[in-house]
Design brief:
389 residues; Butyryl-Coa Dehydrogenase, subunit A, domain 1; Butyryl-CoA Dehydrogenase, subunit A, domain 2; 3 domains; binds flavin-adenine dinucleotide
Length: 389
């Protein structure tokens, strides 16, 4: 549990965040291993973020927070994009967990029935860390009615980030009467016996403590449901919300450019024309990515409650932003590798871990389908692209 000790005030949170981020970044290399090897996990970083008021800021404004991530105002949305980018720059794993927390709270704020919303927001205010676990394990998550208004869960979630760190997970489950219907359910995520961190065999983002989570024989009631069938898929929040992880990705690319800059200076290679050319091109990719993400974030959140056309345009904007940010990050990875040669690959170095983490975190769900969806929305748009966007 993360104590949210401070009443939120954005100026002081931002100032303290800037002081905290070097500490988060300094720990990142050590946490790129199993907890047995490091003797620690991201709990220390999450506690630090809670102490400076970042978790409290993520609460709805009517519940003592600033609505960070909830899209109430363009200003709060830009703060959110900036926070995720800066966290990504310090440690992409921390950004991944905070992004999941924001996403879960947003789904609760948008869709939960009043009593459920009150209960879950109270848990967040008391310091619970939230996550959103959508990806399915070998046996997809299912709801089975007991007949008394309660449900038994079966199956498992995969790629579940924050095992042992997340207290409450909002999960997607298939409904009993219609496997095509997705129901969001809030579950307690703390049962160690259900956690399968050994399933994370990927060579990066290790500090996220991601893996499987077994649901078999857990019990849920309607009071644990977050909204109704398929609310999870409502736009502009579902595809549109990808701007949040894009912000973190841009931060990861910025960290690499900064590492490149320092390395070139330290090795006396910063005046070489080829190196300067690559450094400038990498920095340009980051700047373009940052601006696109901020524009997409504001557009997506502002389209809430808008016309179908406005929502479609915002979602298309987010989807093409995802594509361009991925291309920008891959370009930065290539430019950094070309510039540093073998030094970019030295095991145990920060830059090697940063490259690995960004390269993996870019691999988010269904990129081909997202690009196709962008194409469909653009093809069906009523107005000239540049005008409508
Ligand atoms: C660090 C990290 C943390 C994560 N944390 C979470 C979390 O907390 N909660 C959560 O729910 N998920 C999480 N995920 C999972 C994430 O959302 C994606 O589900 C996952 O990364 C997709 O992996 P993949 O690229 O191997 O998928 P794949 O779906 O296998 O995609 C690989 C490629 O195949 C293509 N493809 C996909 N389907 C098909 C098809 N049917 N036919 C042909 N081609 C296809 C894709 O477009 C892509 O090009 C996390 C992932 C990472 C990397």
């Amino acid at each position: 549990m993360k104590a949210t000790e401070k009443p939120p005030d954005w100026r002081s949170i931002e100032a303290e965040l800037l002081r905290a981020l070097p500490l988060v970044a300094a720990r990142a290399d050590r946490l790129d291993q199993s907890p047995e090897q490091t003797g620690g996990d991201l709990a220390e970083d999450l506690d630090l973020l809670a102490r400076i008021g970042l978790f409290a800021a993520a609460l709805p404004s009517g519940d003592g927070g600033l609505g960070l991530g909830l899209g109430y105002s363009a200003q709060a949305t830009l703060w959110t994009a900036t926070v995720l980018r800066r966290l990504g720059r310090a440690n992409l794993s921390v950004a991944r967990l905070f992004e999941g927390h924001l996403n879960a709270l947003k789904l609760i704020d948008l869709h939960a029935a009043p009593a459920t919303r009150r209960r879950l927001v109270r848990r967040a205010a008391a310091g619970a860390v939230f996550g959103i676990w959508g990806a399915e394990g070998a046996t997809p998550a299912r709801l089975h009615p007991h007949g008394d208004g309660s449900y038994r869960l079966s199956g498992a979630k995969a790629f579940a980030s924050g095992l042992g760190l997340v207290d409450v997970a909002v999960i997607t489950v298939r409904r009993p009467n219609d496997a095509a219907e997705v129901q969001l359910v809030a579950i307690d995520a703390g049962d160690r016996d259900r956690q399968q961190p050994e399933q994370w065999t990927a060579a990066a983002m290790r500090a996220t403590r991601s893996g499987g989570f077994v649901l078999d024989d857990m019990v849920a009631t309607v009071a644990d449901f977050v909204g109704g069938p398929n609310d999870y898929l409502l736009e502009p929040h579902f595809e549109g919300g990808i701007w949040r992880y894009c912000a973190a990705h841009v931060g990861g690319a910025e960290a690499l450019v900064e590492a490149l800059r320092r390395s070139l200076i330290a090795s006396g290679r910063a005046s070489d024309v080829h190196q300067l050319d690559r450094l400038a091109r990498a920095a340009a990719r980051c700047e373009a990515g940052r601006r696109l993400v901020e524009a997409a974030a504001v557009k997506v959140e502002a389209s809430r409650g808008g016309t179908r056309g406005e929502i479609d345009a915002a979602v298309a904007h987010a989807l093409v932003t995802r594509e361009v940010v991925e291309e920008a990050c891959v370009a930065v990875l290539n430019l950094v590798e070309r510039s540093l040669g073998v030094r970019a690959h030295v095991a145990g170095s920060s830059i090697e871990r940063q490259r690995r983490d960004l390269g993996l975190y870019l691999r988010q769900a269904a990129p081909d389908a997202k690009l196709q969806q962008a194409g469909r929305l653009i093809a069906g748009a009523a107005a000239v692209i540049g005008e409508q966007w």
